[in-house]
Amino acid sequence: MPDAYAQALARSLNDPEGFWAEAARGIDWIEPWQRVLDDSNAPFYRWFAGGILNTCYNCLDRHVAHGRADQPALIYESVMTDGSRSYSYAELLDLTARFAGALAQAGVGKGDRVIIYMPMVPETVVAMLACARLGAVHSVVFGGFAAAELATRIDDAKPHVIVSANCGLEPGRVVAYKPLLDAAIGMATHKPASCIVLQRPELAADLGPGDIDWNDALAAAEPVECVPVAATDPLYILYTSGTTGQPKGIVRDNGGHAVALHWSMQAIYGIDAGDVYWAASDVGWVVGHSYIVYAPLLKGATTVLFEGKPVGTPDAGTFWRVVERQRVKVMFTAPTALRAIRRDDPEGACIAAHDLSSMRALFLAGERSDPETLNWARDHLGIPVIDHWWQTETGWAITANPLGLGLFPIRPGSANKAVPGWDVRVLDDTGHPAPADQIGSIACKLPLPPGTLPTLWNADGRFREAYLERFPGFYSTGDAGYMDADGYVHVLTRTDDVINVAGHRLSTGAIEEVLASHPDIAECAVTGIADAIKGQVPLGFLCRKSGHERAGDDIVREVVALVRERIGPVAAFKQAVIVERLPKTRSGKILRGTLRSMADGKEYAVPATIDDPTILDEIAVVLRGHGYPAIGSDAPSN
Ligand code: COA
Ligand code: AMP
Question: Which end of the chain offers a freer environment for a tag, N or C, measured as fewer CB atoms within 10 Å?
Answer without folding.
Answer: N
